[in-house]
Amino acid sequence: MTDNIKRCGWAKDPLMHEYHDLEWGKPIHDDTEHFEFITLEGAQAGLSWATVLKKRENYRKAFKGFDPSKIAKFKQKEIDRLLGNEGIIRNRLKIESTVSNAIAFLAIRKEFGSFDEYIWRFVGGKPLVNSPESLKDIPARNDLSDLISKDLKKRGFRFVGSTIVYAYLQAAGLVNDHEVSCFRYGQLKGLK
DSSP labels for 5-30? Predict the structure, then answer.
């Protein structure tokens, strides 16, 4: 690396550096950000995160800034328009799931006051801090992601398998999986 900063092993290029350094693992408490991360992690299924990250701004425009109350109103016309949008991943099931997930997201918000209240209760209100030495020490899923995945599916979410949910938990800062040698590990440890 040219900047001599020790990062997690997966952050290999400038775009990933920026995402890693500023966002990944930082605890979020904004419902729109939660919905964005759940949507993007679902869009990643079968693809690389770099592919999704390169299309992120296009996703923000196409999906109304990830406002679930706007997306929940999308009709077939909007879905068909999105299928022609080359700036996003044009997978019908993923696009349709974003709309149905917005509806399920709003139902959780109504029940719990916010999605943030709902999701953070799974970790007792503070991030779980792991201490991985390297990428091989980081699981793709665990019992927590299994539990949340099952609950989200029961509530009508799609594209929220356990692996997708675990990646979301990492991204949204509910789980700190920065490698212990990474400069962000210590910075984020203890944040809520």
Answer: ----TT--SHHHHHHHHHTTT-----
Q: Of 33, 36, 41, 179, which one is the catalytic site residue?
A: 41
Q: Is 49 tagged catalytic? A: yes
The number of angstroms, rounded, from the C-alpha of 174 to the middle of its chain's C-alpha atoms is 11
Please give the Cα distance from 11 to 22 (Å, whole number).
12
| 67, burial (CB in 10 Å: exposed 0-12, middle 13-18, buried 19+) | middle
Phi first, then psi, for residue 156 (nearest 5°) are 105, 5
State the amino acid at position 99 in one-letter form: V
Q: Is 19 a catalytic residue?
A: yes
Told to judge if 168 belongs to the known catalytic residues of this protein, a careful annotator would answer no
Residues 151 and 107: beta-carbon distance below 8 Å: no
pLDDT of residue 1: 41
pLDDT tens figures, 157-181? 999 999 999 999 999 999 999 999 9
- Among the listed residues 24, 49, 118, 168, the single catalytic one is 49
Whether the pTM exceeds 0.90: the reply is: yes
Domains (ranges, CATH) in the chain?
Answer: 27-188 (1.10.340.30)
**What pLDDT, in 10s, does the model give residues 4-43?**
899 999 999 999 999 999 999 999 999 999 999 999 999 9
